[in-house]
Amino acid sequence: MGDPEALNRLMARWQKPLLGFAYRYLQNSADAEDMAVEAFVRLYQRRDRLRPDSNVAAWLFTTLANLCRNHHRWRMRHPADAPTSVSPGADGSHDEPSSDPGPCTILERDESLDELREAVGGLPHDLRVTVLLHHYQQLSYAEIAAITHCSERGVETRLYRARLRLRERLGSLTRETSRA
């Protein structure tokens, strides 16, 4: 990281995935942006400590996951300071399909997505991070293991446990979806 342009290249490469992860974890664009920027600031501050063979992506996601967890804990202890509305995805993505469905379909889908977001948000930190990295960042078990500091088998177990909890929590939603 001795190259002055190295941080700019890293930011260009990892800014969108980090923002997407942070937004899905925190459900707030401003907080997600702050946490992603803080991860890059910490990378810059600790650049001299990183070895040339370091997995920078794993380091960034690990740092960001810890920042998000700490920020989420702070928000839980200070609910009066919490934002009142959730804005669209910080990564620029939308959960809407390209065709124009009817209003009832849109309402049902939005309610389902809200339930899913709430259910994922209710998972313990280790399960939530694993789900977000696997399903939204499309990282492999090996990459997730490097970020979460557990084995690939541990990643598989965490995903299994997370899916069980999500199934329990979203039981009514999955039954309604299967009927439709």
Question: How would you portray this structure in words?
Answer:
This protein has 180 residues and is mostly helical. It folds into two domains: 1-82, RNA polymerase sigma factor, region 2, helix turn helix motif (Rna Polymerase Sigma Factor, Chain: A, Orthogonal Bundle); 100-180, Winged helix-like DNA-binding domain superfamily/Winged helix DNA-binding domain (Arc Repressor Mutant, subunit A, Orthogonal Bundle), CATH 1.10.10.10. The chain is built from eight helices and no strands. The protein has helices at 6-26, 29-45, 56-77, 103-121, 125-136, 141-148, 152-169, 171-179. Helix 1 packs parallel to helix 3 and helix 2 (29-45) crosses helix 3 (56-77). The N and C termini lie far apart (53 Å). Residues 85-98 have low confidence and may be disordered.
Which helices and strands occur, and which strands form pairs?
Layout: H1 6-26, H2 29-45, H3 56-77, H4 103-121, H5 125-136, H6 141-148, H7 152-169, H8 171-179
Helix pairs in contact: 1-2, 1-3, 1-5, 2-3, 3-6, 5-7, 6-7
Count up the helices: 8
Looking at the structure, the CATH topology of the largest domain is: Rna Polymerase Sigma Factor, Chain: A
Global geometry:
globular
Amount of helix: over 70%
Please provide the ordered H/E string of secondary-structure elements: HHHHHHHH
Radius of gyration: 18 Å
- Distance, first to last CA: 53 Å
Q: Tell me the CATH architecture of the largest domain.
A: Orthogonal Bundle
According to DSSP, the number of beta strands is 0
* Integer average pLDDT: 81
Strand count, sense and closure of the main sheet? none
CATH superfamily of the largest domain: RNA polymerase sigma factor, region 2, helix turn helix motif
Count of all domains: 2
Category by helix and strand content:
mainly alpha
User: What is the CATH class of the largest domain?
Assistant: Mainly Alpha
Low-confidence stretches: 85-98
- Note the beta-strand portion: under 5%
